[in-house]
Amino acid sequence: MDLESAPALHAGDRLGRFLLVREIGKGGFGVVFEAEDTALRRRVAVKVIRPKPAMSAAGTTAARWLRPEAEAAAQLRHPNVVTLYDAGSWDGGTYLVYELLRGRTLAEALDAGPLARAEAVRVMRDLARALAHLHAAGVVHRDVKAANVFVDADGTVKLLDLGLSQIAGSAGHAAGSPPYAAPEQWRGERADARADVYAWGVLGHELLCGKLPEGPPPPGPQRLGSLRGLVAAARSEDPDLRPADGGALAGALDRIERRRARARGARVAAVGLVLGAIAFLVAWPTERQIARNVSTSLEAYQKYAAGRRCLERPSEGASWLRLDCGRHFREALAIDPDFPLAHFELAALARWDAHPDVEIAQALEPALQRIDRLPRREQAQLRAWKAELDGDAAQSVQILRALSEDYPQDAQVAFGLGEAFYRQGLHADAVAPLERTVELDPGLELAADELVWSLGLLDRTDALRALADRMAASAPSPGTLHAEVQARGWIGDLDGALRVARRAAVGGGGAAREDLEDALVAAGQWDEAEQLLAEDVARGTERAPHRLESLLLLRGRIAEARALVARQPAPADGRLRFIAGSQRMHRLAATRDVVAMERIVDETRAWSPQLAAGFAPVLAYAGDAARAQALLPAVTEPGAREMTRALIAWRTVGAASALPQLRRLARADPAAVSSLPPEGPAWLAAECAAQADRAEAAIDDVHRFQRFYFPLGLWRAWAYPRSLVVEARLLAELGRPAEAIRALDRLDALWTRADPDLSLHVEARALRTRIAAADFTAARASGWRRP
Asked: How far apart are CA 235 and CA 204, in angstroms?
């Protein structure tokens, strides 16, 4: 039946599982009802479609024009876009099912009077973010207007009628409402994202000026440095003079807001300078004795500022590990050796760069000597660092908690507390201050990165999904895109992670390229990942050889991996030698070559006994319980001590004795083990569980390790292929042969070019044969006969 002849519906009628409760509105496309979803027991909004004459005249049926567009719209998830749940047809027409909103449309709000400027700007910003999400997904709304923007009861801005304008466009109807429709829509031309930008500009003018525009803006390019200039540019009659899409709009708005914030800060600072100058002149004799907390050298301060930017924006460097940031602070100290803030930052970096505690303390000492010259905030952070180095983690946290209460709006203070918990492996405690940091300063990229890792280690899938959606809703930046890639990877949305990573890496390198390579590996597109990594190696990218080695090992190409390592020059720097030795140590965990591992421990001890002791868990895993026990007194990290004891018990008493501790450590609560690769505890729990003969629970542990989003990790490179064989064996033991074979098929796909006769491949082939034989025997026992 054509929709034009659809009979009327009323409250009390049913559409499939939806019971219509009451009519709540009418629009150009149909009638909207509040309805009860009787299957899911929730209230929804059901829009019954009334087709445009052009649709019916063209003979367009519901099935042809509704389903494809509605399915595309239903894939979008954004806090500023109404959620489309379902779509369907019945014997009298067609309907769409949306989330039920409580509030009023923006048109109704404007009828009651103009909005306050701050509220108007918020609506414009949220609407730009909604359009950015739509356009990034390849969706054009085509009918943005005040009546299609909803302000929920809690103030949330929602873009409405998603799908309907898409449907109209597909059916040949020229979507768009005067006066919001772009000139190209009036001309009947195909509308792209710039038509939505035009409508946003008209709506922005209406919000800022209290009325609709009376004509086009002046011809030619507009200045984008102000909100009014951006609105005028969006209304340009020439589409090429408008921002390209919603992402460009949102980015321009963010830049305007940042400039306004800096201008406000500059005005406050100017007032402070004037007051300070007055006080200085009045109290000259005593003021001269007040020690400086910044450098007297402008050049030194500029170097320091460059270092801070490097720390806060790792996406702008070659890697997310911030390997080059220290040079800025060293350059600052070369100009002004008494610059206490530069000393403080170098000490903080020494901790992240795997320096021994004694070297960190040496780096911290110059700042401690000048602690009275530091601002109060930095003084407290410095004392917290000192307490942690002295082994008093509780005192460190107490100092930082008090500081966060004194500076509740300071993102750096919130991050300091979150990072302290993160370093100590207290990820459950780290979540709240890291979330606060992201809320206060979305541009502090490391906070979002560490928040993703903490939520991932804690298996908080819902929180990760919400974080990914929040990052997608914000203006795109390298930091938000990185966090979204990581969050989607952790929740298993590998296609989504790859899609975002490709978008972030367009025309870029460094951290964004590493994210793309990781996402490709996770999504099983190994050949493309290998090509990118080989290009990085040829360019001399520092981490590329190690990452390519991981991929080769993951794919069973051991000989190529060894040849690649052999071609790399031996590092001269002690720290780099330790890092290289640590990588070899963890690779040797695969073969449990105790002799070679002990040699690395001895080499490391000559540089740092403390870091050598950090190898105790790996030695215990390899079966060298005696050497691990000897190193245990020098292990300072609580999680590493507990891990070492559990592994020693596993190797000397049995797997069942170690499994509870290993499972808890794998979930990073209460203590992580920083001396192991991040995925290491997850694999240890999985392998131990498999040996403890708890098949059902062991499969959960194996799957958790496989979901761990560290695609090119040191242990994942050799443990992931093993996990597939372990999974297949456990499934076979549980009488699930089809699933077991699928696990082995995944290994075969991964190892298409593996070295011949690898022991694990031999084991996998033998297991496949046994599974097939057992299946054949079971079939015969049940009465099956060969035809």
From this structure: 10
Identify the sign of the CA torsion 460, 462, 463, 467: positive
SS3 at position 265: helix
Burial degree of 367 (CB within 10 A; 0-12, 13-18, 19+)? buried
Tokens of 668: 């990073």
Q: Are 711 and 492 in contact (CB under 8 A)?
A: no
> By CB neighbour count within 10 A (0-12 exposed, 13-18 middle, 19+ buried), where does 517 fall?
buried
pLDDT of residue 673: 66
* CB-CB neighbours of 563 under 10 Å: 12
For residue 98, list its beta bridge partners. Answer: 45, 84
Question: Residue 36 is inside which H or E element, if any?
Answer: strand 30-37
pLDDT at residue number 646: 95
Torsion over CA: 637, 640, 646, 651 (sign): negative
Determine the pLDDT at residue 274.
Answer: 42
Torsion on CA atoms 357, 358, 360, 361, rounded to nearest 10: 120
Q: What is the pLDDT of residue 288?
A: 29
Calculate helix-pair angle for 695-707, 655-666, nearest 10 degrees: 40
Name 21's Cβ contacts closer than 8 Å, sequence gap at least 6. Answer: 11, 33, 34, 35, 36, 43
The two structure tokens encoding residue 515: 């994210």
Given this model, what pLDDT does residue 670 score? 52
**Percentage above 90 pLDDT, the chain:** 35
DSSP category for residue 531: H
Give how far Cα 694 sits from Cα of 91, 684, 689, 697, 709, Å: 54, 15, 6, 6, 25
Reported as a single tens digit per residue, the pLDDT across 119-171 is: 899 899 999 988 987 876 678 888 899 999 998 877 789 998 765 555 444 44
DSSP code at position 755: P
Determine the Cα–Cα distance for residues 86 and 88; give it in Å rounded to an integer.
Answer: 7
Say how far apart CA 195 and CA 140 lie, in whole Å: 8
What is the token pair recorded at 287?
């003021």
Instruction: State residue 114's pLDDT score.
Output: 87
Which amino acid would we find at residue 208? L
- Among residues 627, 698, 708, 620, the alpha carbon closest in space to that of 668 is found at 708
Q: Where are the alpha helices (DSSP H) in 555-679?
A: 558-566, 574-588, 594-607, 609-613, 616-622, 625-631, 638-652, 655-666
What is the Cα Rg of the chain in Å?
31
Residues with catalytic roles: 143
Task: Identify the segments of the chain with pLDDT beneath 50.
Answer: 1-6, 54-60, 62-63, 167-174, 268-293, 784-787
Please return the burial class of 53, using the count of CB atoms within 10 Å of its CB with bins 0-12, 13-18 and 19+.
exposed
Helix, strand, or coil (residue 253): helix
pTM of this structure: 0.62
CB neighbour class for 614 (10 Å; exposed up to 12, middle 13-18, buried from 19): buried
| The dihedral sign for the CA sequence 416, 418, 423, 424 | positive
Closest to 487 in 3D by CA, of 470, 503, 465: 465
Within 13 Å of residue 756, how many CA atoms lie on the same side as its CB?
A: 0
Q: What is the largest CA-CA distance in the chain?
A: 108
> Are 86 and 71 contacting, i.e. CB atoms less than 8 angstroms apart?
no
Give the dihedral sign, CA 472/478/480/482: positive
Residues 243/248/253/254 CA torsion (nearest 10 deg): -160
Q: Is the peptide bond before 183 cis (omega within 30 degrees of 0)?
A: no
User: How is residue 638 written in tokens?
Assistant: 């609580």
| Span 565-589, pLDDT tens digits | 888 887 666 666 777 888 888 889 9
